[in-house]
Amino acid sequence: MTSPLLDVDRLEKVYLRTHASTGATTRVHAVRSISFQLQSGEVLCLVGESGSGKSTVGKMLADVVPPSSGTIRLHGQDLLALTGRERDQASLRIQLIHQDPFAALNPTRTVAQSISAPLVIHRHMKAKGPRMARLAELIESVGLSPAREILAKYPHQLSGGQRQRVVIARALTVDPEVIVADEATSMVDVSLRVGILDTLKRLGDTLGAGFVFITHDFGVARHFAFQQRLAVMYLGAFVEFGPTELIVSNPLHPYTTMLLSAVPLPDPRKNRTRRRLRPLGEEIPDAADATVGCSFASRCPFATDRCQVEPPALVDVGGGHQVACHYVDRVAEETRAYRTWA
Ligand SMILES: Nc1ncnc2c1ncn2[C@@H]1O[C@H](COP(=O)(O)OP(=O)(O)O)[C@@H](O)[C@H]1O
Ligand SMILES: [Mg+2]
Predict the structure, then answer these.
(1) Which CATH code fits 6-93+174-338?
(2) Would the pTM of this model clear 0.85, i.e. be above it?
(3) What is the predicted pLDDT for the residue at 337?
(4) Residue 243 burial by CB count (10 A; 0-12/13-18/19+): exposed, middle or buried?
(5) Ligand 1 shell residues, CB under 6 Å
């Protein structure tokens, strides 16, 4: 059997947080034992509230931060076992699209200089003629035109939406095999978001790359991961994972129902009268606080004594739909009345 494009196994990240005044350190368990596989042309969407560990997963995939444990394999090759130049080359194959296009682009460089930097550094293409043609092609592929004009501009001469598209083009320069887009539309005006999402989606379809799409917005996740897969993250772990349509039509983790019942409906009158499943307390607990049982127990209206002490495993309930909850059947029954988003 051939290896999957991307194979992530029990990936973990523990940060050490130093208290500013006392100097004491606490362990922040940002990512807890995440495993998934991705094939070429597939999309996996990570969705969850701020602090759930989504960006840390993206950074580990793109080799921006080292995992505390676990493995990342690309075509069967263990990337974390590589060192030096081999590691640098391998890390180019997984490209991260940054959520902040201001931070990602050098203000003193033209668009051409910014997006050709990876080509020059990694000697993909030395001659200037073919390079400019390739850059123009990249710029057009992300929906910017006229390409020659855009390439000559500096970041401050572009709109927010154009800047974000340039950052996307730069990630594509090295023909990545996996693209990780972290909140790629969060800094862009709402009116431009759909266009950029559509561009990303089209690129995902045409490039044949694997796509890890990260968002805190379940509405966006649903749109982007249509007919693909989705993972709901809470405090560093997948609590529900599987085909998007199965999860949206039949969410089995109470947290998923909470997120879905909070997505605004197209008809604002219905928003006022719909039922929302709310957590017990709006705040996510601190990832530094140790949990013994289910990490969601402190906010879960259905939690029992068992949930406080015994962590639920992520279990397949059929069709690749996986849920980490001791009371899947009961929760499905009791949350049915809240499924107002369909
Ligand atoms: N460099 C860091 N040092 C210490 N803690 C961090 C660091 N980066 C992230 N964290 C913590 O890790 C957890 C997950 O963060 P992050 O991956 O950014 O989540 P998300 O992208 O879902 O908002 C949070 O509790 C955050 O405070
Ligand atoms: Mg983030």
Answers:
(1) 3.40.50.300
(2) yes
(3) 86
(4) middle
(5) 15, 17, 28, 30, 48, 50-56, 287
